[in-house]
Amino acid sequence: AQSVTQPDIHITVSEGASLELRCNYSYGATPYLFWYVQSPGQGLQLLLKYFSGDTLVQGIKGFEAEFKRSQSSFNLRKPSVHWSDAAEYFCAVVLFGNTGKLIFGQGTTLQVKP
Amino acid sequence: GAVVSQHPSWVICKSGTSVKIECRSLDFQATTMFWYRQFPKQSLMLMATSNEGSKATYEQGVEKDKFLINHASLTLSTLTVTSAHPEDSSFYICSAKQGGPSYNEQFFGPGTRLTVL
């Protein structure tokens, strides 16, 4: 079945440490890939997206993600986490040719220790 | 640019009443709007896809008579939760996109917290 998986439900990192959030997808073709961030009680903000081309994508707030076709992965990274990065992070895909429906992963809650 | 608003941001209602939630694209024309539901500590689940001037397409398991969606203009879609019950309490988020069938970025509203007593 087609799916998006975020293996880590909850991650805690110290402020200033590096971060990597994992995302794997299961589709026959390469979908469009996204990372969103959600603060408590808020809507979603797009961090970055991958459609094609360079597999290392730069986003807002110092985030980047790398698409690896061989691993069907699109992991999100940040070299130095700030306390304000504490939030819920969602990986999502849109299938090419689809109506534009986003399929979300389960989400990863990021906690940042001072 | 690309701002999507929702109104109200939160609502509390009695069981059995109906609640309408508005989703507006403020600075662009949204040919398609999406409605999502999110339970606490869970991901977003797509409820329906709404295209301007046509009937909404509901996802499997979503009751179309329970969740009425109207996309009357290129800037407004409404979700009406009819005869609401406590199990309908949730966070409802809309998103909007421009353009045709090919992908264009979706822009999300801030969400509406519905509590049914």
Question: What is the structure about, briefly put?
Answer:
Chain A is mainly beta and 114 residues long.
Describe this structure in words.
The complex is a heterodimer of chains A (114) and B (117). With 114 residues, chain A is mostly beta strands. Chain A has no helices and twelve strands. Chain A has strands at 3-5, 10-14, 19-21, 24-26, 32-38, 44-50, 56-58, 64-68, 73-78, 87-94, 103-104, 108-113. In chain A, the strands form three sheets. In chain A, strands 2, 5, 6, 10, 11 and 12 form a six-stranded mixed beta sheet that branches. A four-stranded antiparallel beta sheet of chain A has the order 3-9-8-7, with no helix packed on it. Chain A is globular and about 40 Å long. Chain B has 117 residues and is mainly β. Helices cover 0% and strands 51% of the residues of chain B. The radius of gyration of chain B is 13 Å and the shape is globular. At the A-B interface, strand 6 and strand 11 of A face strand 5 and strand 9 of B.
Summarize the amount of helix of chain B as a percent range.
under 10%
Instruction: Provide the structure class of chain A.
Output: mainly beta
- The secondary-structure element order of chain B is EEEEEEEEEEE
- Most strands sheet of chain A: 6 strands, mixed
Number of H/I helices of chain A: 0
Please render the helix and strand layout as text.
The complex is a heterodimer of chains A (114) and B (117).
Chain A lengths: L2 E3 L4 E5 L4 E3 L2 E3 L5 E7 L5 E7 L5 E3 L5 E5 L4 E6 L8 E8 L8 E2 L3 E6 L1
Parallel strand pairs in A: 2-12
Antiparallel strand pairs in A: 1-4, 3-9, 5-6, 5-10, 7-8, 8-9, 10-11, 10-12
Chain B lengths: L3 E4 L2 E4 L5 E7 L6 E7 L5 E8 L5 E2 L8 E7 L2 E6 L8 E8 L9 E2 L3 E5 L1
Parallel strand pairs in B: 2-11
Antiparallel strand pairs in B: 1-3, 3-8, 4-5, 4-9, 5-6, 7-8, 9-10, 9-11
